[in-house]
Specification:
globular; 17 helices; 2 domains; Cytochrome Bc1 Complex, Chain C; two-stranded antiparallel ribbon; Helix Hairpins; about 0% strand; mainly alpha
């Protein structure tokens, strides 16, 4: 279908004025990749799919949502009431809202899998350093957008979660209190906070879409300028090139949509992991929930935060746990890319994945002395993993790489 469109007179007219033909060929139809890529490479295209879903459903939700903490005649706030009206009165509003709420978790899941694949196969190594750095920027924007959107339902967990997170800025020396007030629009989370968060939550996905475009472009430029190194992720045979969009991508999308639709239609709350039960209760600044925790995709960093008794030290450690991701391409100095040929690194990275899962579990659960100790141990290994990469090439014996073209 794409080839037939490119042969029309209209496309020729557009191409003459925009160069669309060269762009489409370089980015889509003539972009070659190794034939032996496994299904772990599907998560990048899946992330793009979910991003489009999130933007579209978010636009429709914004048509009916009202960011106001004022009380209605029924005793609910306008924001909380507008969410309930979307769920009950708007045609298919429940579907759009569940698609958006479930889509947030799906977005983080596929992106975390995408990052994990890149980490396991060494996709951050040269000449892909900038590609990795842009990816980390995307992760930070995603987390910001998720945090801003988390407050919008104006439920109990939304309100108190935003209160706890904005309190962290107050721990910063000198400018902390000022930043906290700027973010909140006052001295406490209230109506100005809700309006600011709604504006930022609407802005960040558009910014994210632009940076994702740069991320994809950077990937294609790297591969175009370095075709001889394109197969080093997963080289087991001579490379046969083929168009980027293949049956594998379509199959991956089909499998993803099966799980996505099942959750949307049959289990959107996912036991409280995707939508917390407390968020069905209107926000009450006089009643604190028994256990305040962020959504599952933010809990690993929440565990790192509370693993330190000092509040400022915890904030610094949480920031460092994200900031150190930018340095990964420069910390790992091994000449071998994939962990399939680096036995020690493979054990380290698998343990790192387990550590992140443990951090997430500890952050979602109520704090106990045992879980606090487990979280501190996991936090220690999280940072140790990156530090050990500096010394790993000195004592790691890698496996011979296969021949490739």
């Amino acid at each position: 279908m794409l080839n037939s469109i490119m042969k029309t007179k209209l496309f020729a007219w557009v191409d003459q004025r925009t160069g669309a033909d060269a762009i489409i060929k370089s980015q889509l139809t003539e972009y070659a990749v190794p034939k032996n890529l496994n299904y772990m490479w599907n998560f990048g295209s899946l992330a793009l799919l979910v991003l489009v879903l999130q933007i579209l459903t978010g636009i429709f939700l914004a048509m009916y949502y009202k960011p106001s903490a004022a009380f209605t005649s029924g005793g609910y706030t306008v924001a909380f009431d507008s969410v309930e009206r979307i769920m009950r009165d708007v045609n298919f509003g429940w579907l759009i809202r569940y698609m958006h709420a479930v889509g947030a978790s799906a977005f983080f899941f596929v992106v975390y899998m995408h990052i994990g694949r890149g980490l396991y196969y060494g996709s951050y190594k040269g000449p892909r350093e900038l590609l990795w750095i842009i990816g980390v920027v995307i992760l930070l924007i995603m987390q910001g957008a998720a945090f801003f959107g988390y407050l919008l339902p104006w439920g109990q967990m939304s309100f108190w979660g935003a209160t706890v997170i904005t309190n962290l800025f107050g721990a910063l020396p000198v400018i902390g209190e000022y930043l906290q007030q700027v973010l909140r629009g006052g001295f406490a989370v209230g109506d100005p906070t809700l309006n600011r968060f709604f504006s930022l939550h609407y802005l960040f996905p558009l910014l994210l879409a632009a940076i994702v475009g740069g991320h994809v472009h950077a990937l294609h430029v790297v591969h175009s300028n370095n075709p001889e190194g394109i197969d080093v992720h997963n080289a087991e045979e001579k490379i046969n090139f083929h168009p980027y969009y293949t049956v594998k991508d379509a199959f991956g999308v089909g499998v993803f949509l099966l799980f996505y639709c099942y959750i949307v239609f049959f289990n959107p709350q996912m036991g409280g992991f995707f939508i917390e039960v407390d968020n069905y209760v209107p926000a009450n600044n006089l009643q604190t929930p028994p256990h305040i925790a962020p959504v599952w995709y933010l809990t690993p960093w929440y565990t790192i935060l509370r693993s330190f008794p000092d509040k400022l030290l915890g904030v610094v450690a949480m920031g460092a746990s994200l900031g150190i991701l930018f340095l990964l391409p420069f910390l790992d100095r091994s000449k071998v890319r994939s962990s399939r040929y680096r036995p020690i690194f493979r054990q380290m990275v698998v343990l790192f994945f387990v550590t992140v899962i443990i951090l997430g579990y500890c952050g979602h659960s109520a704090p106990t002395p045992t879980l606090k100790l487990v979280g501190q141990i996991a936090t220690a290994y999280y940072f140790a993993f990156f530090i050990l990469l500096l010394f790993l090439p000195k004592f790691e014996k890698t496996k011979p790489l296969p021949d490739h073209i």
